[in-house]
């Protein structure tokens, strides 16, 4: 019974990760640079970008700020 909800969370994590990576690449920014600007470790950024992290809204806000966008932009399809 939990699988459909879990599948939704996993696809949502993939969406956020993909948007984060795409924005970072557009800005020609390395994960290390984004890490320094956002205060999130490079290893955790990698997990987020690969859809394996479970960041808090506060962390996503820090990442979005470092990417020069709004946190809601990370949620867009």
TrEMBL record:
Keyword DNA-binding: yes
PROSITE patterns: HTH_CROC1
InterPro entries, per database record: Cro/C1-type_HTH (IPR001387), Lambda_DNA-bd_dom_sf (IPR010982), TransReg_Diox_bact_type (IPR050807)
Assigned GO CC terms: cytosol
Keyword vocabulary terms for this entry: DNA-binding, Plasmid
GO MF annotation terms: DNA binding; DNA-binding transcription factor activity
Coiled coil segments of this chain: none
Record-linked Gene3D superfamilies: lambda repressor-like DNA-binding domains (1.10.260.40)
SMART domains: HTH_XRE
Residue intervals of the HTH cro/C1-type domain: 21-74
One Pfam family cited in the UniProt record for this chain: HTH_3
Domain of life: Bacteria
Name of the featured protein: Xre-family transcriptional regulator
């Amino acid at each position: 019974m939990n699988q459909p909800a879990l599948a939704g969370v996993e696809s949502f994590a993939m969406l956020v990760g993909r948007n984060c990576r795409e924005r970072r690449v557009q800005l020609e920014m390395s994960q290390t640079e984004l890490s320094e600007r956002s205060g999130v470790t490079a290893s955790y950024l990698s997990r987020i970008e690969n859809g394996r992290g479970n960041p808090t809204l506060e962390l996503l806000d820090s990442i979005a700020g470092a990417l020069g966008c709004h946190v809601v932009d990370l949620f867009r399809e």
